């Protein structure tokens, strides 16, 4: 399997497309610019199987309906943020988009607990990693040594916790107990910015150095 990072929207939110040799794919966090994402998928002849959301802030959900309707695929989100998709006051767009509301249709599938999720030929371990938001999750692909971490952990930084329902202590606990417990060679695919690894962040991230 391989993945492609596609920054989308004003905040350059990282959308990821994970695909296998059969051209099936999973889409993570289609935050904006649905036409651009569809053009890439069509060009590569990829066949989406599902949309997985690491969390439901507005910059991670903006193109959800465009992709869902075009490819007729289900959308997964954690139960703690299921109602954020339809509520601009919860997903942050009212606060940060000068009154512009970004909402999408309700999710098709609800993540309720940490478990192994299988979709077609793809298998993920769901890790609950709240703190940046109450329903933040990370998707770990063991056979690729890769975790789709959303806005939990960045290169040299961590997710912001000054947004409504953010909690820095909870976020640091999520990173320590869930992400840093992964093998040190694990590649971390963050919601913004460059790709990193667990090993690099343990050594160089000032927020978690020494854990």
From TrEMBL:
This is Metallo-beta-lactamase domain-containing protein. It comes from Heyndrickxia camelliae. It comes from the Bacteria. Keywords: Hydrolase, Metal-binding, Zinc. Signal peptide: none annotated. InterPro entries: MBL_Glyoxalase_II, Metallo-B-lactamas, RibonucZ/Hydroxyglut_hydro. The keyword Isomerase does not apply. The lineage of its organism: Bacteria, Bacillati, Bacillota, Bacilli, Bacillales. GO terms for molecular function: hydrolase activity; metal ion binding. Its cofactor is Zn(2+). Residues 12-192 form the Metallo-beta-lactamase domain.
């Amino acid at each position: 399997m391989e993945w492609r990072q596609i920054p989308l929207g004003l905040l350059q939110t990282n959308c990821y497309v994970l695909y296998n040799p059969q051209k099936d794919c999973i889409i993570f966090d289609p935050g904006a610019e649905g036409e651009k994402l569809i053009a890439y998928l069509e060009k590569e002849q990829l066949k989406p199987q599902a949309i997985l959301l690491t969390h439901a802030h507005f910059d991670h959900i903006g193109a959800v309906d465009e992709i869902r309707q075009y490819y007729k695929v289900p959308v997964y989100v954690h139960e703690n943020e299921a109602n954020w998709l339809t509520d601009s006051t919860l997903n942050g767009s009212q606060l940060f988009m000068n009154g512009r509301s970004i909402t999408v249709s309700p999710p098709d599938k609800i993540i309720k607990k940490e478990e192994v999720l299988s979709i077609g030929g793809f298998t993920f371990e769901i890790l609950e990693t709240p703190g940046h938001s109450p329903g933040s999750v990370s998707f770990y692909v063991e056979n690729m040594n890769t975790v789709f971490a959303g806005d939990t952990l960045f290169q040299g930084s961590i997710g912001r916790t000054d947004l409504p329902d953010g909690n820095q202590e909870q976020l640091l606990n999520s990173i320590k107990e869930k992400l840093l417990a992964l093998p040190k060679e694990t590649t971390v695919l963050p919601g913004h910015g460059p790709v990193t690894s667990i090993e690099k962040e343990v050594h160089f991230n000032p927020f978690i150095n020494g854990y």
